[in-house]
């Protein structure tokens, strides 16, 4: 690939040697002569001599763009083949009454239960278990070893990474000579454009559904309990846990290892910083941290006071 | 289903229109006309016109019961078919010397190692790996993609959810030109009526066993290290982690994301609140929180002091 | 096995009845008459009458060694058969152009993608998914249900436990009418002698690689984000999470449930105690704890002050 082609893809302006061929694409500190890198700051140090950044860099070639992160998004998308090769593996097991358009891909050792409906262009990875009656929309990618249990409805263009479990019984019991599990009959609704990481668990509702709103992105090893409702365009980072029946607004960001207690209401546009525990409902448009979580600036002040003269 | 039938199942007294047919069963805030819901407080707002609650509600029909949660348990149990359809899938692999009663179910792509013993009415889900010599009791449900490694003994009526791993090598090393794993030869004992969530990990003992006591319930993404002993009727919520050789009494509740350090003794009837880290042994019958964990009321007092005048 | 044989294996000196046959090998508090146990302190109480410890114990037999933990390592290694039985299961699927020496073992329902290279003596467990182009060295053990995605390179003598996912897309997005995933084209490099627990997730780099240094040991349910670089001989205990692009030195110990924020530099020989959150870069040779993490002694002092007169 030449710089001129890269410039077309990232919608920027070439500078330096236009005909340079790019070698590897690497982070600034790992790149060498001939490699291409992205510099959020054009003054940043790198051995790469081809850079995509916000201004011309002396002695280097590259592409000037407004937003190098967006340029990276465009270039990597261009370089990635996301088309699936349709086909139903003879080593998969397909139940009765399954709706399966020709453009789908079902990989070996996958099991598709009775009456499952799968949309056009969807790929079910190897070793997946799709339970009877599950509905999966168009253009979805369900990666290897995932388990999608009954009463789950998945929208369009949803991506679910490996080893994730959706729709297991929630953790609700009554006490009666020991604990007895309340049988969960609710479902899980995963709306369009949701992405879910690897080794995630999302439980079905007791009655009523667990819901993940459109465009929400969930990282690896996250736990979402029964009847949780998550709004649109939220970000749940690695190892977050949300307890039963909690409602989370739109555009909420829960940073790594955050926990949210059960039956709470979290407003829109809330940010909760890493490792915090939200134990009370919180209104919209604010930032929280701490255990138990409070407004972030309050926590910063209390911590400053705690450590005053302590170092 | 009619209200009169529901009343029989939940053992309550009908009020209002006895012949009403119930629509969906939904939470109070999601239910509509014709639906049935459960109200812990009979004054709670809902559009459902069929309610199961502790007193008659004007303008609605329903069933009066002493304990609506228990009524929910009874009704959902009644509505759920928990019987398995026995049969050994031709796509499973069964080793030599396996004890496998006719009433069992082995799903496709499951592997049952040599000399495994499985009790009556047990179901091994698709893609499970049951290692040589494992013993599993009667009426168990081992869900899809679970891994049960050798030296594991599972009692009766145990349920293990998807993608859970039981019996891997524990995290014990000696230092000798880098770390070298100590080979673990102990086992895992899962007693009767234990339930274990999805994506859980329970390691085998180094020497001696890791033990989960009768009736204990474990939520998703929990880590239980080698040689941990957990008593009866404990509740371990999502993402709890327990380090090696710790002993936990009976009726202990560890809330979400709690961590317990290694080689500790936790008494009976202890409650540890969410996100706490227990770094010292604690006696019975008390509540703990904080990092490091202390008595809960002490922590509340210290936090109140820390935040005094800080908001 | 007799005490004299044990003494040869653990390289120690017999005392007491040399010809005693050992029963079970159990922890001190679980052992009974006839059993063997290890005592780190020769005065420790046990019913075992065969002990491996640092000095003769009156009334018992056993072996005197300098380091009982090392003796345990030696004895358990001696008792464990770690040889694999080579062979390619007819129920596995092997792609085109795969390099697969005769001494390997591929278990049933495993999938080996096109052009995968596997070294001598490596075992790929049942139901594993090894993506096209993956390289795995000699003497590796990839346990059941693991997923190794493309652009992953694994060195020699690496062990990866069950249900672990290596090489999924990292959690990086741009915002543009909702979030859009940046396609990750980097790889994962797992160096020699690394061990990785069960249900772990290690994401591929965005550009450039995620790297795990030689001899590093990773426990269960750990999350390692895209472009993280971890040095040699580190210990990452259960449920640790490391956010994107963070660099960790050699000989670092991250205790259970520790979180490390993104784009940080952690020096060599750092210890971070359980449940801490590292939010800033930290230099070598120090101990940290707390949320946010500070030097451990500072945190201890601040906590002492906070709880003064609070109990």
Through-space gap between termini of chain A: 54 Å
Mean pLDDT of chain A: 96
Low-pLDDT ranges of chain A: none
Number of helices of chain A: 3
Strand and helix layout:
Three copies of one chain form a homotrimer.
Chain A: H1 3-10, E1 13-15, E2 36-38, E3 50-53, E4 61-64, H2 68-79, E5 87-88, E6 93-94, E7 105-106, E8 111-112, E9 117-118, E10 123-124, E11 129-130, E12 135-136, E13 141-142, E14 147-148, E15 152-154, E16 159-160, E17 165-168, E18 173-175, E19 179-181, E20 188-190, E21 195-196, E22 201-203, E23 210-212, E24 217-218, E25 223-224, E26 229-230, E27 235-236, E28 241-242, E29 247-248, E30 253-254, E31 259-260, E32 265-266, E33 271-272, E34 277-278, E35 287-289, E36 294-295, H3 296-307
Parallel strand pairs in A: 2-3, 3-4, 5-7, 6-8, 7-10, 8-11, 9-12, 10-13, 11-14, 12-15, 13-16, 14-17, 15-20, 16-21, 17-22, 20-23, 21-24, 22-25, 23-26, 24-27, 25-28, 26-29, 27-30, 28-31, 29-32, 30-33, 31-34, 33-35
Antiparallel strand pairs in A: 1-4, 18-19, 35-36
């Amino acid at each position: 690939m030449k710089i001129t082609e890269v410039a077309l893809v990232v919608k920027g302006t070439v500078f330096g040697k236009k005909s340079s061929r790019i070698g590897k694409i690497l982070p600034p500190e790992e790149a060498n002569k001939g490699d291409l890198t992205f510099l959020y700051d054009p003054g940043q140090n790198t051995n790469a001599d081809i850079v995509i950044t916000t201004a011309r860099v002396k002695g280097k070639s590259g592409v000037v763009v407004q937003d190098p992160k967006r340029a990276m998004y465009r270039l990597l998308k261009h370089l990635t083949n996301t088309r699936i090769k349709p086909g139903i593996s003879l080593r998969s097991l397909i139940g009765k009454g399954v709706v399966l358009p020709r453009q789908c891909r079902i990989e070996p050792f996958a099991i598709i239960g009775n009456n499952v409906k799968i949309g056009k262009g969807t790929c079910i990875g190897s070793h997946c278990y799709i339970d009877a009656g599950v509905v999966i929309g168009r253009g979805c990618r369900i990666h290897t070893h995932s388990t999608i249990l009954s009463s789950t409805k998945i929208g369009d263009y949803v991506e679910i990474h490996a080893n994730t479990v959706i729709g297991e019984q929630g953790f609700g019991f009554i006490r009666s000579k020991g604990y007895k599990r309340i049988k969960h009959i609710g479902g899980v609704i995963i709306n369009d454009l949701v992405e879910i990481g690897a080794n995630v668990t999302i439980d079905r509702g007791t009655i009523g559904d667990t819901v993940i709103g459109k465009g929400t992105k969930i990282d690896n090893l996250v736990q979402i309990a029964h009847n949780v409702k998550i709004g649109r365009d939220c970000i749940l980072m690695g190892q977050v846990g949300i307890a039963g029946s909690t409602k989370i607004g739109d555009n909420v960001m829960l940073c790594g290892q955050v926990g949210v207690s059960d039956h709470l209401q979290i407003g829109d546009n809330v940010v909760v910083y890493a490792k915090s525990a939200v134990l009370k409902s919180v209104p919209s448009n604010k930032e929280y941290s701490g255990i138990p979580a409070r407004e972030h600036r309050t926590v910063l002040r209390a911590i400053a006071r705690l450590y005053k003269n302590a170092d």
